[in-house]
UniProtKB/TrEMBL annotation:
PANTHER family: COBALT-PRECORRIN-2 C(20)-METHYLTRANSFERASE (PTHR43467), PRECORRIN-6A SYNTHASE [DEACETYLATING] (PTHR43467:SF1). This is Precorrin-6A synthase (Deacetylating). It comes from Halomonas citrativorans. It comes from the Bacteria. One of its GO terms (biological process) is methylation. Pathway: Cofactor biosynthesis; adenosylcobalamin biosynthesis. Keywords: Cobalamin biosynthesis, Methyltransferase, S-adenosyl-L-methionine, Transferase. GO terms for molecular function: precorrin-6A synthase (deacetylating) activity. SUPFAM superfamilies: Tetrapyrrole methylase. Its EC number is 2.1.1.152. It is an enzyme of class 2 (transferase). InterPro entries: 4pyrrol_Mease, 4pyrrol_Methylase_sf, 4pyrrole_Mease_sub1, 4pyrrole_Mease_sub2, CobF. Residues 3-224 form the Tetrapyrrole methylase domain.
Length: 254
């Protein structure tokens, strides 16, 4: 039996890693760290640092790095993601067979929390559906959405009002979600908020949340949209990658 722990590690800040996550890391016999290409080398560097800082000196945990399969950007999105997840599941299975042939405990470090726009749980299910003896353990982590609201010092929702979490793709395709007073937008390739009424919408934007290079901008869209787009482009150019998120509302949240 393989016990696979999906360990939420927050946004890269060691102070955001829970005691439960630290315990799960130290209980793992093998920790798998994915490499996502040279442009995103910062991401595996942060994972390495977390392991160095959080693993006990007496821990016998082995760190195993692997190259993450890439998604076909030319195919239809959902089918490309489905094929991509199959490829990742196959890599995980090969690594488990190689490094824990008799079973044991494997740890995977997941940005934020495994429940929020992360596919680790779906990939793990493919392993279980294939007939492998895999038990999944989930350790929750602080999400970028929590860090965003904390850094901007705002609540997530307007008083007694609903919120919807969506993607940049959906915001572009469908506009403002029905009945949502507040909208949290993730996985935006850039500027989906420009499709909304600019004078009537507030935005709280953040990039590299929890990291040393964190960047925050807030205000009415007609005042800050251009600034966000320009800053985002400059940051992506400087670092080779970007992770950002934003909250939208029709009125100030506090």
């Amino acid at each position: 039996m393989i016990t696979l722990s999906l360990i939420g590690i927050g946004t890269g800040n060691v102070d955001h890693v829970t005691l439960a996550a630290v315990r799960a890391l130290n209980e793992a016999e093998v920790i798998l760290l994915p490499r996502k290409g040279e442009a995103k080398s910062d991401l595996i560097d942060l994972r390495r640092v977390l392991c160095e800082q959080l693993l006990n000196d007496t821990a016998s945990t082995r760190i195993v790095e692997f190259d993450l399969p890439t998604r076909d950007g030319e195919r239809q999105y959902l089918s490309a993601v489905d094929e991509w997840h199959n490829a990742i599941a196959s890599v995980w299975a090969e690594l488990m067979d190689k490094h824990l042939p008799s079973g044991g405990r494997v740890g995977m470090l997941v940005w934020g929390d495994p429940s929020l726009y992360d596919s680790s749980l779906r990939i793990a299910k493919r392993l279980m559906d294939s007939g492998r003896a895999v038990e999944v353990n989930v350790v929750p982590g602080i999400t970028s959405l929590q860090v965003l609201t904390a850094e901007h010092k705002i609540p997530l929702n307007a008083l007694a009002e609903p919120i919807q979490i969506t993607t940049g793709r959906r915001l572009r395709e469908r506009g403002w979600p029905n009945d949502a007073a507040t909208v949290a937008v993730m996985l935006d390739s850039g500027g989906a908020f420009t499709t909304l009424p600019q004078a009537d919408t507030y935005i709280w934007w953040g990039a590299y949340l929890g990291m040393d290079k964190q960047c925050l901008i807030e205000g009415r869209l007609n005042e800050v949209s251009e600034e966000i787009i320009e800053r985002r482009a400059a940051l992506r150019e400087a670092h080779g990658w970007i992770m950002d998120i934003y909250l939208l509302a029709k009125q100030p949240l506090i």
